[in-house]
Amino acid sequence: MKIVIAPDSFKDSLSAQAVAQAIASGLTEVWPQAELVECPMADGGEGTIEAVLAACGGQWMTHQVSGPLGKKLDAQWGWLPETRTAIIEMAMASGLQLLKLEQRDATVTSTQGTGELIRAALDAGARRVILAIGGSATNDAGTGMLSALGARFLDSDGQPLPPGGLALANLARIALDGLDERLRDVHFEVAADVDNPLCGPNGASHIFGPQKGASPDQVLALDAALGHFADQSASALGSDEREYPGCGAAGGMGFAAKAYLNASFRPGVEVVADLTGLAHALEGADLVITGEGRFDAQTLRGKTPFGVARIAQRQGVPVIVLAGTLGEGYADLYRHGISAAFGLTSGPMTLDDACRDATTLLHDRARDLARVWQLATDRASNSTTN
């Protein structure tokens, strides 16, 4: 029997690799001779680098960058030297988790640190950059990132604009003569699971600005400022990308990546699946087990179990989910390639206790799942024999 174990991380508890190992240990109790293929996964958000490096044997790299409010910090990125591929999580340098709740201010936070990570990747010789843009604290349409790569955004007096999206209302000229020439030889892929445009009621500022600290009035001002930036960009570049699906992702980082870096967009889980070789691992598999911390209707929006199920469906492999909790609407996933889903806890338990005991819980549920599967297999075999 061949079983592919392809879970996401359990946030605040276990990495995807640790989840896969715990599941494998439980299955081994029942199937010691089974071929267990561990393929840690991610959906382009937190944990993407870790999952890819665990599968591909790449390297963690560290670079000092400017955080969302300019404070220096050490940020990590992933490097696959054989293919000269850099994996950059925007959240590492420009993420919401880097700020306290009272520090969130979408009007002034900047993506400069993400640009500094890209520059570090260029220095290492990158020819492909995968940009995972989930979890950002920013709403500057990627101008901080572009500034770190040599672009200049100037006011009517020819002075550089201060950081943040609100300052873009005063943008008078975009100077690209200093943009790093190495960018021309690099293919950028944006791992994003939203299709929002840059501006408007479904755009970056309106949809994502409030969680980043923007008041209703600031949302309106930011939306107008990003619209002005899009106008100026269209004049400078000769094309207008503001309506392209995904350009509103990460406070408009998607727009900068598309318009200025000619990036392609793909669902994050598909990008990770390609890098980890999930489709190849599923060849000849009898079962795939995936999972995440909370499995519910939101999983349909491109999270790991949904993406794994889509790939497994193409090869006719059944998919079972082991999740920290099962939330509202999880059964909707049964129409999208998920065969069954199970929560980890067997009785009342606090979140802290569940996180602490996640390894044991995963081991036990995987063991129990294997026993049920084995019982069904034995009965089917006996029925055929008789």
Q: What is the distance, rounded to the nearest whole angstrom, between the alpha carbons of the first and last residues?
A: 23 Å
Tally the helices: 13
Report the average pLDDT across residues. 93
Rg measurement, Å: 23 Å
User: Strand arrangement, largest sheet?
Assistant: 3-4-5-6-9-10
- Beta percentage is 15-25%
Helix content: 25-40%
Please describe the biggest sheet, giving its number of strands, its sense, and whether it closes into a barrel: 6 strands, mixed
Can you count the beta strands? 15
Query: What name goes with the CATH superfamily of the largest domain?
Result: Glycerate kinase, domain 2
CATH architecture of the largest domain: Alpha-Beta Complex
- Summing up helix and strand content along with how strands pair, one would put the structural category as alpha/beta
Give the helices and strands as they follow along the chain: EHEHEEEHHEHEEEHHHEHHEEHEEEHH
| Contiguous runs where pLDDT drops below 50 for at least 5 residues | none
**C-alpha geometry:** elongated
Write a concise keyword list for the protein shown above.
elongated; 386 residues; 38% helix; alpha/beta; Glycerate kinase, domain 2; six-stranded mixed beta sheet; Rossmann fold
Write the layout of secondary structure elements.
Elements: E1 2-5, H1 16-30, E2 35-38, H2 48-56, E3 59-66, E4 72-80, E5 85-89, H3 90-94, H4 112-123, E6 128-132, H5 143-148, E7 152-154, E8 173-175, E9 187-191, H6 204-208, H7 216-237, H8 249-261, E10 264-266, H9 268-276, H10 278-281, E11 287-290, E12 294-295, H11 304-314, E13 319-323, E14 325-326, E15 340-343, H12 351-356, H13 358-385
Parallel strand pairs: 1-2, 1-11, 5-6, 6-9, 9-10, 11-13, 12-14, 13-15
Antiparallel strand pairs: 3-4, 4-5, 7-8
Helix pairs in contact: 1-13
